[in-house]
Design goal:
The protein has 239 residues and is of the alpha/beta class. It has helices at residues 23-37, 44-53, 55-63, 72-86, 93-100, 112-120, 133-143, 153-156, 163-172, 187-195, 230-236, and strands at 11-14, 21-22, 107-108, 124-127, 180-184, 199-203, 225-227. It is globular and about 60 Å long. Belongs to the HAD-like hydrolase superfamily. S-2-haloalkanoic acid dehalogenase family.
């Protein structure tokens, strides 16, 4: 597959949380026994949404230079500590550490493994995620995600949508941005990738945020490809 100027796309780089794996369902599954055991005033869905709600603000401190680069595992744990304190819960350290590792044990969407296997026949496939290497490695081993390589945010020391995250990931693969395509279920991620010079593919995940999701229900711009899932994307790319 080539651009009009003849540049061949060699790598598909994937957002992971929400695009390849169901983060919300996984966190709800793992959090609910913990919440019941500690008499939490909220259930799994609200807990998952509130924990995820702390995700971008914690990374923004890194993006703005307010703190040095810090791995997502550490940010997730800091956010978890904040949330359980806010809810008035008093778990011990090992319980919190186990729950924090729930992000390593997320399930893939039903089409993800098949779609990645098909796409891998023609392209290099790798995550371009804000996750750290160990998190993404554990996730891949458990879920059977067939990445060609695993690159985490700490390798480029930048969090999306910082342009460095996209450009330096391409550089690690000895590719120019135009030789890479960003695959994501989030329009803002694709907009940042396009600004950094990557091609773009939107994959619809209408229940990432639950049954009342109101964002990313369709493409907001003229992305290079739009697909209902990764299997359809493989069909569109003729794999």
């Amino acid at each position: 597959m080539t651009r009009n100027n003849g540049t061949k796309v060699e790598a598909l780089l994937f957002d992971v949380f929400g695009t390849v794996v169901d983060w919300r369902g996984g966190i709800i599954r793992e959090a609910e026994p913990f919440l019941r055991a500690h008499g939490s005033p909220v259930g799994g869905p609200e807990f998952a949404d509130r924990w995820r709600g702390l995700y971008q603000p914690s990374m923004e401190k890194v993006r703005t230079g307010a703190r040095e680069f810090t791995k997502l595992d550490v940010l997730h744990r800091e956010n978890l500590d904040h949330l359980v304190k806010e809810l008035g819960l008093d778990p011990d350290g090992p319980e919190l550490e186990s729950l924090n590792l729930a992000w390593h044990r997320l399930d893939p969407w039903a089409d993800s493994v098949e779609g990645l296997k098909r796409l891998r026949k023609r392209f290099l496939v790798a995550p371009l995620s804000n996750g750290n290497v160990r998190l993404l490695t554990d996730m891949a081993k458990r879920a059977g995600l067939p990445w060609d390589c695993i690159l985490g945010a700490e390798v480029v020391r930048a969090y999306k949508p910082d342009p460095q995250a996209y450009r330096d990931t391409a550089g690690l693969l000895n590719l120019q941005p135009a030789q890479c395509m960003m695959v994501a279920a989030h329009n803002d991620d694709l907009a940042a990738a396009a600004d950094a010079g990557l091609r773009t593919a939107f994959v619809l995940r209408p229940t990432e945020h639950g049954p009342e999701q109101s964002t990313d229900l369709g493409p907001d711009a003229s992305w290079d490809y739009v697909a209902s899932d990764l299997v359809e994307l493989a069909d569109l790319l003729r794999n």
